[in-house]
Design a protein that fits this description.
The structure is a homotetramer. The relative contact order of chain A is 0.07. Chain A folds into three domains: 117 residues, Malonyl-CoA decarboxylase, oligemerization domain (Butyryl-CoA Dehydrogenase, subunit A, domain 3); 125 residues, Malonyl-CoA decarboxylase, catalytic domain (Aminopeptidase); 171 residues, Malonyl-CoA decarboxylase, catalytic domain (Aminopeptidase, 3-Layer(aba) Sandwich), CATH 3.40.630. The longest helix of chain A is centred in the first third of the chain and has 18 residues. A seven-stranded mixed sheet of chain A has the order 1-2-3-6-7-11-10, sandwiched between helices. In chain A, strands 4-5 form a two-stranded antiparallel ribbon. In chain A, strands 8-9 form a two-stranded antiparallel ribbon. In chain A, helix 1 crosses helix 6, helix 6 packs across helix 7 and helix 7 packs antiparallel against helix 8. Chain A is built from 21 helices and eleven strands. By secondary structure, chain A is of the alpha+beta class. Chains in contact: A-B, A-C, B-D, C-D.
Chain lengths: 487, 487, 487, 487
């Protein structure tokens, strides 16, 4: 009886129905009627899945608001705490335990019950994605449901995090002989370098390629995290060499199948990593996958000496345009911009090259070229822009920070894993996608296995970024601009 | 720094070492150095496994005592609660969340880290078994560590319960074609009706038998719960008919293999259920296994109409001897015993049969016979004892209670599952084991599928035991003794 | 030494090389040097695979001619036979055995050796396809190699037939969860109703569809025979209803997956059967596959009552055009054609409809329409042509014979299996492919399980075709034309 | 009709029944009624399996005699051969083909049909074992059925040999995690060094041991050939060190499992190889299994440098006793035995040791000791007998021949495989079994991989036995006896 909530005031009929269903699950659980509770949980899932988004929102708010904790009980136990402490450790510990249980919201029982079902875990992961979406779209300070939704989503994260503990993940290699439905998902999930057709796909799981996934026992046939790796003989400087070329020389066997020559491989390039479940946001699995794959590759190829990513730099173009804008504003306001972006000579050469820029400043012209990606088609601009853009990109990656850590999320991911910021590559991804993200640049993060621990520690504790001379040179080049440009 | 405990006063060198290891795991976790933390967790497991029991106790107490919660922080947040409530729901919810996190003991991080390892889950389950053992053997009110150990064990139970949620268990059928190591474990774990040799074992997984197990993804090749089932054409009244006989008529195929005739089966008898992991005590999986097996059998044999157990009655003989002792004491004290155990006529017939009982009372003689199991070898006693022992056993099962529920744990298990107390069977298990447990009696609990939910609910809520006329008659027969015996 | 052939006269260098390789295999086998023989067999396979077609022909002729039997030894043993018979059964049997062994060509040892290799069986099957191709393209009576090639191909057939005995084939169901490489092959092999894209393919292995294949242990991942089946609620009369529609009503589950409702199924339609290996020509596996699939479906769906094919009628249009041509020639020659094809009224109506046919006869006009498939686009012609074309197609299927059996190979296949010629369907396949093969008609052959044995026997022994009233009516309609058309 | 045999004269009712069944299979096959033929073949198998041995003999003779070839047709075609030759190659080849087909016995069709069935191949293998048994037990020259049975068994061998071509065998490793039924068979089939209990068995598939089997697709769960291998750090000189000891040092893991240290292994010892199917006699698979296992081990342990057997020497004691007997007879007959067995000094020492030998010669005494295996219990005899018995055993192994090849079958097997006769080991198998076979000696045959081909060739072609200096010394020691003993 204590768990059965009386529906509040003027509830919508949907909320009333939600109350009924949730109450019956809780009631059945209380009397240990497992089959009843199972059936009711299954009904609830069906019910929820068939709701339209607006109704889902009502349901989730009802769940968050009416099936949380009982504040009064918590308050009451909390007030007993200091007295309990005086009565000795035994009493204190028991009181704390009571407090802990009082802090477990009622919906936890519902989730536990749903977790019993086939596909129940997947349901909860998907429901968490719904809540994330709801919070992102309705996040107004005026919405009084938000604190409750945030409690709900945090609670779900903690529960799911325990279920998706790394020890529960299974590493699987995906090949062209893997199940078709799984390969189709791999294809659809690939967002970094989209897979256009099945020939593309076959190449990405074929010779000199490794596609590894983490799967979870309770979400069969679903790749939870996907890591694409290329086996090469050098650290790749262009994504096209990986996704559009068949890789190193291949012997062809009697029946025409292409075979790898293990001896020609000395490098593993991680060129795409994707977490496929929005509802797992905040539960880190990607770094574990990389580490497991490194182990796997080391045991397969003893001679692999280099592990590196070929990573995109999402946000660089956006950042650059903002910076240029800021510069223009500062200039317009007659302020002396703290740091120049281009040297005078660079501006001059570009101005000479693009010809008549009317009454626009060269900076404005560059902005337009970058916004439209048109510079990449030009004969001369790529060469002229190479030096300044690489310099600025290094600055973006190495200098820009957020709470002390690298501002660029991909950089932050690899640095936290202990990788070294290794090499910035010009014209490494000349697809529209690549140009729009980072003016076509990509970067390698190198994993020196014996150093990752230390790198990671130093990065986490002291915010120090380990970088190669190339990167450091590029970064340093930013500092001198002012001086140089004054000459 | 906050997580690093300073070792207390005069710690043993073992405790110091434990502190070092635990602190380094927590430190590595704090800086997200996953590989370091993994390695340290692995070291810790090795370290613990190689300790002698006394040192394990020291380690566990250190863990429980020094890596729990910070009472002061909890107290402080608890004191802020009422003020937070006044500042609005958002603040209240956030404070509650802070309180919840403060209530998570430090060792939780250690367990999470161990859970990442291969065999880590198994390690924690086994460690929980160690703590249970420690609590059972040292449970003196004077031991001040106990409250901490209890907190520790409860916390582990909650964590393990989430990991062993039913949705994470896999149902597997074990046959003679299953892996040898698994079959060996099945054989060793069988405690109810021990398996003497491999012929025995082959029969228990052979035709007209079903052996189902729950396994867990993170403890591969380990049957966590085992359910032995016999397929018969009636509700079995003797365990020998199951474990020593090959079952119903079998066709033999061309190559001599024995085959089932599905049409001759109409009943499934659950004759043994075992939870193999002591560390999972308190986490109910057995009832779920029975329910899954019922589903499985129904889909395999549409004509199965009866599902029943053939269950032991552990504790009956012990209870009976206590009751008889109590009776004798009451009599000796000149008190009028509230309820007689045997009728005068029963006592007389037994006395006549056993002959010279010297100066002992017949009750004493019966007690001795029962203690030694010698009555079973006698020509006449089994017949003479049948009526009174069955009557008393029915009383033990149906009337004796603990907190309102059946005192006998096996009865309580099946009644909670919604079974009906169906039929008491005389001379159903005449092994020494069976005689010593329950004077050779066994009982069937019947599962009427369309009624289990209701039965379970009524039992859980109102403590009502659903029983067959046979049981009820036997129970009622106890009531009339006094009157009858006075005649 | 006896097995080593001395290269004949002016052999090409290729033939010399072939001799060397073959001799070394035979030599190694003679001394039981298995590893040597294995390696040499592997070399031979590589060598052969890399030859251009012309060289393959030289190799095959060398093999056939120089590694066959020793005619003189055979002759000699044959001449001893009658004398052996006089010396008693023991001697006769031994002589026959010697004769049998003398009749085993030398290349048999080479094939046995190749059969030891991984992929060796596949190699021999493919080589047999090469020989078939060679025989088909060079089959001039003047080519003196042909008798040897025919001996070679027959010997290979006998050997392969033993290897591909039905007991060695494995039945597998292919679904969307099957291996991607296998599904790709399924897609490529489908010649009857080509699969255009992966959506097509997904449908053919999805709900209400069954795709079964025979695989062989020594040719892993290779579907040897493929049978596509649709589960329906009636005998389908159009291929589009199967390959372009998702089938019967489907429930959608929680997570959106489409599910079958087994109760809505009462018919299984075999709509495509393909033998994928040219080298297995003459080794019947298709009928066994159909029978195994019938068993499989019966055990899955007890309520399936009808098993029928929806089959193409390859060759009908070609036959029809030939018949019409013959008619025109006969007419031109002033001969009275033995059997008219169209009634006068039919011709008149068509003539009226197509309008001005210039100086061509209506027959010629019809021929042109049929040749171009243009009639199918017309508004009226499909209706006008329906009756005559169905009548003529029934005649083609039922009356036209080859060595007493149905001339149409698909008809012959199903009739030999014991099926009944069931229903001719108008506009059942309106693709260009369907129109070009059979003017868009398809036919159902029905498998009445309790009658197939008898039907098969009667067809095989007495050439009797079991047909439905519809077919018989259509056939009979041909007979009356003359009379009718004279009216 | 032509295939239907009219039962001959006074056939037993069993033979009549056999005729009926066989005829109906042949009849059904002729009309391609596959399902009928399948059913009848299944009936035939059931029928045969349930016969008592005497009736099986009748059945087999009927099959051999009445379902063989038609001698008259063969004779007739044979007589046409020379004429055919004159008419050209095409005609000759066709006639030869007709002859070949006429030489295929009728029962071949029956076997082909049975081969279609599940377990059909196993049935034929077992039936061949029955025929072998029949031939071995009734092999009197007077039995006129024998030539027919021999034809039958040879035909079956050829058919089965094609089915059991090495390319059709699958290599599997058996471990303690393999299926229980397979392990039970491994245990039962082990004849060389019997497995006494499951602890024994667990050791033989445990750490530092490899048990590999060949299985065949059509006989699932049946190990056809079994090879037991020990991984050691030297060439073992005693079987007890392998079957009774746990092998090299093992690390024990956290959970107590014993693990191999791959670096401590440099030798693989094949200590038992068993062909389990009597019906496969004459179809060599064992040497292929050894070669596959060598490949397997090389890829698992790159550092393994030695491959050797530890083999029994069956027949040595029997041979020795015969030789000694022959010696005594020669002596008694006053003949000068061509070669003495023992030196005078050896005889004297033995005589001194065994004490009073009454009126028996020392040779007779030694014979008795060897017959009873009693010498092994003696304190001194093992030392005294070591030199002469090892010398004589070397002579037995190296000098005794049959058709030019080693007389000892195990020696012949390994020498044919290209192994070197490496080391004779004294007291290597002191079980009763070992003493009775070879006075407790065992021998290592070494496989030097780069030499096996050549060794095999030289042995097969020139009967040369490659042996180590130890063996050659021992052999040579036999030669000098006469001289030495005369001193």
């Amino acid at each position: 009886p204590t768990t059965i909530m009386s529906p509040s005031h003027s509830m919508s009929s949907l909320a009333v129905r939600a109350h009924e269903m949730l109450d019956s699950i809780l009631g059945a659980q209380e009397t240990s009627s497992t089959t009843v509770a199972d059936n009711q949980a299954r009904d609830l899932c069906h019910f929820y899945c068939n709701l339209i988004p607006e109704d889902k929102a009502v349901f989730l708010k009802t769940l968050a608001h009416d099936y949380g904790v009982d504040h009064n009980i918590i308050l009451q136990i909390a007030q007993n705490l200091s007295m309990a402490q005086e009565r000795g450790e035994g009493v204190l510990l028991k009181t704390e335990e009571r407090l802990k249980h009082a802090l477990v919201p009622k919906y936890n029982l519902v989730f536990t019950q749903i977790g019993h079902l086939n596909d129940g875990v997947k349901f909860l992961v998907d429901m968490r994605a719904d809540i994330l979406h709801l919070l992102n779209t309705t996040c107004h300070s005026t919405d009084q449901d938000n604190p409750y939704l945030k409690s709900l989503i945090n609670h779900l994260r903690d529960l799911i995090a325990i279920w998706f503990s790394v020890g529960f993940m299974t590493l699987e290699r995906v090949t062209w002989e893997s199940a078709c439905d799984v390969l189709q998902k791999i294809s659809e999930y690939e967002a970094v370098h989209p897979i256009r057709n099945w020939t593309d796909l076959k190449r990405r799981v074929g010779p000199y390629r490794r596609c590894y996934v983490f799967t979870h026992h309770s979400m069969p046939r679903e790749p939870v995290v996907v890591l694409h790796t290329a086996l090469t003989d050098e650290i790749s400087n262009s994504i096209q060499s990986i996704v559009s070329h068949p890789g190193l020389e291949q012997e062809s066997s009697v029946n025409g199948a292409r075979k790898e020559d293990p001896n020609s491989v000395n490098t593993a390039i991680f060129y795409s990593i994707t977490s496929t479940q929005k509802g797992l946001q905040g539960i880190e699995l990607g770094n574990y996958l990389i580490k497991r794959v490194v182990q796997e590759l080391q045991s397969e190829f003893s001679q692999i000496q280099q592990f590196a990513s070929l990573s995109p730099i999402p946000g660089f173009r956006e950042w650059l345009l903002l910076e240029m804008n800021r510069y223009l504003h500062a200039e317009a306001a007659g302020e002396y911009p703290e740091q120049k972006l281009f040297t005078g000579r660079e501006l001059q050469e570009i101005a000479d090259n693009v010809g008549d820029t009317r009454d626009k400043s060269t900076i404005e012209t560059i902005m337009k070229l970058i916004k439209t990606n048109n510079w990449a088609q030009s004969e001369f601009l790529p060469d002229l822009l190479k030096e300044p853009l690489m310099r600025l990109c290094a600055r973006y990656l190495y200098v820009e920070k957020r709470r002390g850590f690298a501002f660029n999320p991909v950089a932050n991911f690899h640095l936290r894993n202990g990788a070294v910021m290794w090499r910035l590559n010009w014209l490494a991804d000349t697809t529209t996608r690549g140009l729009s993200a980072s003016c076509g640049m990509m970067i390698n993060y190198c994993y020196f296995l014996e150093k990752t621990e230390e790198n990671s520690k130093v990065y986490m504790e002291k915010h120090h970024i380990e970088a190669s001379p190339q990167i450091l040179e590029l970064v340093k080049a930013n500092v001198g601009i002012e001086t140089k440009s004054h000459l």
